[in-house]
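Quick one before lunch.
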Amino acid sequence: MESGMVEIPVKVAVRIRPLLSKEVLHNHQVCVRLVPNTQQIIIGKDRVFTFDFVFGKNSTQEEVYTVCIKPLLVSLTEGYNATVFAYGQTGSGKTYTIGGGHIVLVLRKFRVECADEVISLLESGNAARHTSTTQMNEHSSRSHAIFYHQYFVRKQSCRVSEKILMLHRIHLGKSVQTIASKFHFVDLAGSERVTKDWKILAKRFKESVQINSGLLALGNVISALGDPKKEKVYIFHTGMPKITRILKDSLGGKCRTVMITCIKPSSSDFDESLNSLKYANRAKNIRNKPVVNYNPNQDRIDEMELEIKLLREALHNQQVGVSVSHDLNQERARISSLEEQLTRLQVQCVSYRNCVDEAFPISG
Ligand code: ADP
Ligand code: MG
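Model of the adenosine-5'-diphosphate complex:
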């Protein structure tokens, strides 16, 4: 580990959505629940899992935001990259949790200045996202959505003194550093198993194969990164689906990451829910090494740059001073030589005038 880098685990949250009205109508039974006053979940009779955060069927978006997302936003302003990604079976609540049903697919870049512009960007992009009705989710997302937000802030150097800052302003034209941190919101596409969702058409089938190969690769990455015995070096490779490569920095990289695993409560989804919980449990072992996106040595470099600049200026002034005094001496010498010549000429002139005065009466 590089010095100064602290390893922190990926934070893992689990959210269980309520039974939907159609599930209630079909008399589905709940097979997963929270253990009160703990961060634990029980699935089936006795399979217990512990996570960083757990949210039950009555949890609100605000609660999830405050607990999971807000701390990441604070980190973002400090210069850390951050990622929130939702994982889970199709229809488990990923889109609901990440985007409240309004999710953008614009992988293009826009410059935004305020929150309203971000929201309208999200809303306009919602139309671009392709959803379809599958047997398991009426609005199944047919593509992964990644909302990538780059945040620039001019941060005042904290180490340098006021005097140095003022000198920086005057001499280097800068008193602040720019940090540029990235925020990824990732809402994965539906991951229904093809066999279970037997009504999907050929097109859906093709999409499902693509989506599922991405999710399978991602699942394998989570599994491998979360396995303390596995060698981590070759986990990501270029042949992988794009979604996995995009998440490279978020899983085992330099990012602060929260994974929100969404779970359906119905006993008819027991296998998938158990599987998702196992992945989530594995993901707790993934360790990241977050780093601030500006060089902490920059202050020292700035100070040294300034020192060199000031020394150069001093040297230049000295040289100018020397050459000025050099020129002045030359001028002085020249002036005195001219003065001497002038005196000599004046003396000669006087003697010529005397000669002329003496010669005048003779010639007259
Ligand atoms: P996914 O993106 O995982 O496929 P969705 O977010 O589309 O799933 O959710 C499937 C359905 O469940 C939607 O009708 C959504 O409104 C509903 N839903 C999901 N999570 C919740 C929740 N926490 N509370 C209420 N309804 C939810
Ligand atoms: Mg979705």
